[in-house]
Amino acid sequence: MKIILKIRMLKTRVKLSFIFVMQIDWVLGEVKKAVKSAGIEEETIIMVSSDNGSFMYRLNPDRPDHTDDPTIQGYRAENHKANGNLRGTKGSPKN
């Protein structure tokens, strides 16, 4: 719990991805402690997975994107194919 309180006190300039990684690290540590205290450590496998989708947002064709200005976290469809023919980006409900 201490680490979450420390994270909340960090300045807002800290990137959200860093905060996310710190929270995941803490949660996995808590899971490992619970598994060990339950005595099931030898017969437990903990698996962590992540998708590899794009983190940027698809923009309308008339808007500038990351190729026009590197500070823009968005792309026009013709400039970014990280998801192949799949729709959506990280955190979107599309599949």
Give an account of the 3D structure:
With 95 residues, this protein is mostly helical. It folds into two domains: 2-43; 54-82, no CATH class. It contains two helices and two strands, in the order H-H-E-E. It has helices at 2-9, 16-37, and strands at residues 57-58, 74-75. It has a two-stranded parallel sheet. The model has no long low-confidence stretch (mean pLDDT 75).
Label this structure with key terms.
mainly alpha; 2 domains; 2 strands; 95 residues; two-stranded parallel sheet; 4% strand
Task: Report the end-to-end length measured between terminal Cα atoms.
Answer: 34 Å
Give the topology string: H per helix, E per strand: HHEE
Our estimate of the beta-strand percent is: under 5%
Number of strands: 2
Give the low-pLDDT segments.
Answer: none
Number of helical segments with 4 or more residues: 2
Mean pLDDT: 75
Rg over CA atoms, rounded to whole Å, is 19 Å
Which structural category fits the helices and strands? mainly alpha
Give the % helix: 25-40%
| Count of distinct structural domains | 2
Biggest beta-sheet profile: 2 strands, parallel
Q: Given the C-alpha coordinates, what overall shape results?
A: elongated
The neighbouring-strand order within the major sheet is: 1-2
Task: Summarize the helices and strands and which ones pair or pack.
Blueprint: H1 2-9, H2 16-37, E1 57-58, E2 74-75
Parallel strand pairs: 1-2
Write a compact overview of the structure shown.
The protein is mainly alpha-helical and 95 residues long. The protein has helices at residues 2-9, 16-37; strands at residues 57-58, 74-75.
